[in-house]
Amino acid sequence: MYPHHFLFTADTGQVITAQPQAIKHPTQAGNLVFFGTGKYIEATDNSDVTVQSYYGIWDDKSNSEVLKTELRQRKILSDKTSVSGAGFTARVTSALTDDESDGGGYVDWGGNDGSVEKGWYFDFSTIAAERVISESIVRNKEIVFTTIIPSEGKACDAGGEGVLMALDLEYGTAPKNTLFDINGDGDFNKTDDVNNNPISGIHVDGIPAAPLILDNPSGESEAYINTTEKYQRVRMRGASVDEGTRKSWVQIFL
Question: Residue 50 class from Cβ within 10 Å (0-12 exposed, 13-18 middle, 19+ buried)?
Fold first, then answer.
C-alpha cells in the first residue's frame, strides 16, 4: 500500500460529500485543494444547522497535517444585497484590500510576516443550514461552486435556495474583477458591483446542482444553474485567452 497521511481535519459536524478539486499551486511547490463541507442525504439533514465551511488548502507534500489555525479566514460581509436592475440578489465577501478584521489581506505563503500560512477558509455563517454538496469548478483564476440552503420542511420537500459562488482561488477573496453581469446590461462593470466591490455570489431560487459554464465565441460565458425550481442563467466574464487551456478544436478527416 502507498503511504498516506491526513491533509486536513475539518471541524466537528463538517463532512465532505462532494469531490474535492486540486490544482498546481500558482506560486509555490505542491497543490491547492478545494472543497466545501455539508451533506444532504439523511432525513435529519434538513434541520441540521451546523455551520459549514469552504476551504482552500495547500498540500506542500510535507506529509504534515494542516491545522485550521494555519489558514487565513475570509468572511461574508453582506448577503442578499440588491443591485439596481438585477434579477438576483448578491453576496459580498472579503476582498484582498479589506482590513484583516474584515477578512482581507494576502495569504502569507512564504511566511514573510511570521508563520507560513497554509491556505484559507470561510464559514457559511449568515444563513442557517447553508452547505456544499456538489463539486467545484476551477475556471480562470477563480474557484466556482454552488451552495444549497434546504427548506425547513421534510427532506425532499419543494423549496429551498442556493448561491452560485466564485472566489479568487489563490487567496479565497472576492474576484479581482467584475465576474457576473448581474444586472443584465451586457457589460461587466461597476454597475454589477456592490459598493465598488465585485460580488462573490448570486442567490438563486431552488436548490442548485453544480453549474454548467459554457464559453461563447463572442468571448463571454454563461453559467447555467439547474435548480429544483427552474433553470437559471447568468452571464459571466469570458475565460482568459492566456489560461493555457484548449478553447476550440478542429476535426481533420484523412
Answer: middle
